[in-house]
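Q: What residues go here?
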């Protein structure tokens, strides 16, 4: 269950040991998505299915979602998102957290948050040609994807209806 405090959305998730390949299967078989024929975009699937994917068990994460609408219009960039997250002492998440967020929030939850998507701010990845830098996005019924990718370029304008998820350090999440 998520909550909003002072314009920031908070969500708690706990890891359960699901491996990357098992996440792919789990998400694609989830009845919330499977009946609609949704899948993972190929870049997100590759990232989740890699050997670098680290699964954990019993790790509780408090996640803060900063709405793009909190940022100053005309200067609403990914760089500004990071500046606000650093000022709040938030940390980067993991690819595993993207999967946990996807099962924790429904498309209806994302809509109720006033968002079109939640971008999980983990260590950015590159496509196979090293041309495109991206992070995983949890979209709301976008292009039939359960998980998609979001371009990671610091000076690109971000939408006011996109949220950006970061880890709240344990000392701050009380």
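A:
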């Amino acid at each position: 269950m998520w909550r909003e405090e002072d314009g920031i959305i908070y969500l708690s998730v706990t890891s359960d040991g699901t491996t990357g390949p098992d996440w792919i299967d789990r998400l694609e078989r989830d009845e919330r998505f499977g009946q609609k024929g949704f899948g993972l975009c190929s870049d997100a699937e590759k990232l989740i299915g890699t050997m670098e994917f680290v699964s954990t068990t019993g790790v509780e994460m408090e996640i803060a979602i900063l709405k793009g609408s909190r940022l100053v219009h005309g200067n609403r960039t990914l760089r500004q998102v990071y500046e606000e997250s650093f000022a709040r002492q938030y940390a980067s998440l993991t690819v595993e957290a993207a999967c946990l967020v996807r099962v924790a929030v429904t498309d209806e939850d994302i809509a109720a948050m006033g968002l079109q998507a939640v971008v999980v701010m983990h260590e950015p990845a590159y496509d196979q040609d090293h041309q495109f830098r991206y992070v995983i996005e949890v979209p709301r019924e976008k292009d039939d994807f359960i998980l998609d990718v979001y371009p990671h370029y610091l000076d690109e304008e971000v939408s006011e209806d996109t949220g950006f998820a970061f880890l709240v350090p344990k000392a701050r999440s009380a």
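A: Context that may help when evaluating the design: The chain is about 25% helix and 30% strand. The CA atoms of residues 149 and 158 lie 14 Å apart.
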